[in-house]
């Protein structure tokens, strides 16, 4: 016997449909909640540079014409904060765009020269030694060139920002995975913070991160890029001794 309802479905089938619906609704609710949280965090983050701009504008209105030193300080601060805001907005847009997987443009990319170019750029910017080691001259990866570049750019930039010493970038190929280690010998990250650094807008030291122009969006973007290529970023860190970020991408 099977109980047939009006639409011709059995009780079991209806029950299954019901639980699939419930799961879908739960997922929708969750993603809606995440969006809400993102909008609220983003507004909060944008308020800080805006209020600095407002204060300096008021200062300019009051003293700008009579005191050149106030004029210089205020215009400099307004410029810095405006740049920070546009960088943050650009990163937010990147994050939103990344979430549409169909945006990825896969092509065969030789990872070695890509990393070497990236390292060369940072060596000039930070005037720091970045040591590159690889047993391969050629390592072809099917990936979105621009996004992969962005991922390494974020991690090498962080390694330089959060340390004063040399940085090591090492490429390896293990068990069907391309592994790139980005190692610094800087301040490291405390255990309780390690699990949160991939959260949007999370910064261990907000004030310091502001000084270096940080937004707390770099690592979430990098992790998103790695995952959209079927990979992952992991981190091992010791406070006071440095950090190793490892990017693993299937090859
Ligand atoms: P930010 O723009 O602040 O650098 P990220 O998302 O790239 O944002 O990183 C989040 C936080 O993780 C940083 O603010 C910093 O506190 C910490 N962090 C990231 N990379 C490193 C590193 N190599 N060494 C120490 N701390 C790091």
UniProtKB/TrEMBL annotation:
Membrane disposition: Multi-pass membrane protein
Locations listed in the record: Cell membrane
GO cellular component: plasma membrane
Alphabetized UniProt keyword annotations: ATP-binding, Cell membrane, Kinase, Membrane, Nucleotide-binding, Phosphoprotein, Transferase, Transmembrane, Transmembrane helix, Two-component regulatory system
Domain of life: Bacteria
E.C. designation(s): 2.7.13.3
GO molecular function term, any single one: ATP binding
Catalytic activity: ATP + protein L-histidine = ADP + protein N-phospho-L-histidine
Residue span, HAMP domain: 1-33
Domain Histidine kinase: 41-251
Record protein name field: Signal transduction histidine-protein kinase ArlS
Species of the source: Salinibacillus xinjiangensis
Entire protein: shown range: 199 to 449 of 449
């Amino acid at each position: 016997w099977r109980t047939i309802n009006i639409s011709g479905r059995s009780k079991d089938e209806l029950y299954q449909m019901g639980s699939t619906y419930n799961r879908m609704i739960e997922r929708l609710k969750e993603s809606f909640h995440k969006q809400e949280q993102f909008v609220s965090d983003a507004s909060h983050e944008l308020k800080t540079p805006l209020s600095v701009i407002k204060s300096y504008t008021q200062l300019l209105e009051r003293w700008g014409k009579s005191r050149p030193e106030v004029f210089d300080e205020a215009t400099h601060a307004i410029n810095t904060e405006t740049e920070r805001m546009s960088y943050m907005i650009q990163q937010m847009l990147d994050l939103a765009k990344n979430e549409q997987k169909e945006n990825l443009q896969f092509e065969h990319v030789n990872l070695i020269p890509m990393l070497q170019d990236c390292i060369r750029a940072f060596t000039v910017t930070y005037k720091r030694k970045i040591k590159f080691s690889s047993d391969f001259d050629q390592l072809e990866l099917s990936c979105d060139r621009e996004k992969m570049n962005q991922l390494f750019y974020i991690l090498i930039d962080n390694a330089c920002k959060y340390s004063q010493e040399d940085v090591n970038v090492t490429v390896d190929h293990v068990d069907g995975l391309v592994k790139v280690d980005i190692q610094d010998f800087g301040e490291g990250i405390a255990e309780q913070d390690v699990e949160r650094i991939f959260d949007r807008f999370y910064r261990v030291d907000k004030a310091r991160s502001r000084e270096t122009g940080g937004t707390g969006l770099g690592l979430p973007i990098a992790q998103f890029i790695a995952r959209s290529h079927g990979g992952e970023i992991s981190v091992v860190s010791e406070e006071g001794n440095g950090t190793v970020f490892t990017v693993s991408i299937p090859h």
